Amino acid sequence: MQGPTSHLYFSQRLRLHYVDWGNENAPALLLIHGGRDHCRNWDWVSERLLDRYHIIAPDLRGHGDSEWSTGASYNEINYVYDIAQLVLQKKMAPVTIIAHSLGGSIALLYAGLFPETVKKVVAIEGLGPSPEMMERMREARIEKRVRSWIEMRREAAGRVPRKYPTIEDAVARMKEENTHLDDAQARHLTVHGAVQNEDGTYSWKFDNYVRMGGGPGGLSVEDQRRIWGCITAPVLLVRGMESWASDPAIDGRIEHFKDARLANIEKAGHWSHHDQLDVFMGHVNAFLGKG
Asked: How confident is the model over 126-143, as a mean pLDDT?
């Protein structure tokens, strides 16, 4: 597979990394990965679209080859700011966005806040926990949620990144996380997602603090849904039918968008763009049309 070129940009004094697949005269396509992932997880999707688009795929702050955030500020609004800076600095508007999980949430918020800059959005399970899960979480009083988050942060402060004796051990862990991956996929994702330590072992590149998210002070569910309602671009919501994510047509969340459609993909988990690439790309190509 022909690879992209690596570049850096700056946002809120952080040095952030992205890859560029070339074809600079084509329409802009932004690919945003999910939590604890990296920009090279899009390589198979990029290979299918690089002849039609100028593709840029960033590593989110604290992920991949991007700098870790001082103070571990990993709330969604900071991620959205970083994406807004990338689109602005690289003059990508009007941009088409394909994004996964955390990246999907970021993409939808960005599209609602800057609707004039977005052409179309494909969000793979980017709506977060189901309404039922959110309701259970909100049953706990705010003081209990904040105290619990503080205690979890303290615990995370003393956590040492897990070390794997060999790259093969890291590949095995990757396959445990997503059992749909074949050996070649797992190795590719691991090679780009892990770094060799000085003692010869391997650890994942992401900052352990990204597991904590932004804490209890982020956007409310109501605020997020209001922002979704500001999106003017067509939206394709994608869901793997073997994932933990609930169906947005059944739970009602699709109703918060002006123009959204849903693709449920069989025999796919949370990473449908890996688990059923051909089926996923069929939905994407039909949605994007000629770009």
From this structure: 86
Q: Which residues pair with 30 in a beta bridge?
A: 56, 97
Q: How buried is residue 149: exposed, middle or buried, by Cβ count under 10 Å (0-12/13-18/19+)?
A: middle
- To the nearest whole number, what is the mean pLDDT of the chain? 95
CATH architecture under which domain 5-134+219-288 falls:
3-Layer(aba) Sandwich (3.40)
Crossing angle of helices 102-113 and 76-89, rounded to 10°: 60
Nearest to 135 by CA among 261, 252, 259: 252
User: What is the pLDDT at residue 1?
Assistant: 52
Is the separation of the CB atoms in 179 and 274 below 8 Å? no
In this predicted structure, the answer to whether residue 214 has a pLDDT above a threshold of 90 is no
Q: Where are the domains of the chain?
A: 5-134+219-288
The residue assigned the tokens 């205690």 is 151
Residue whose structure tokens are 């352990």: 208
**Spatial distance between the Cα atoms of 264 and 288, rounded to a whole number of angstroms:** 17
CB 203 within 8 A of CB 194: yes
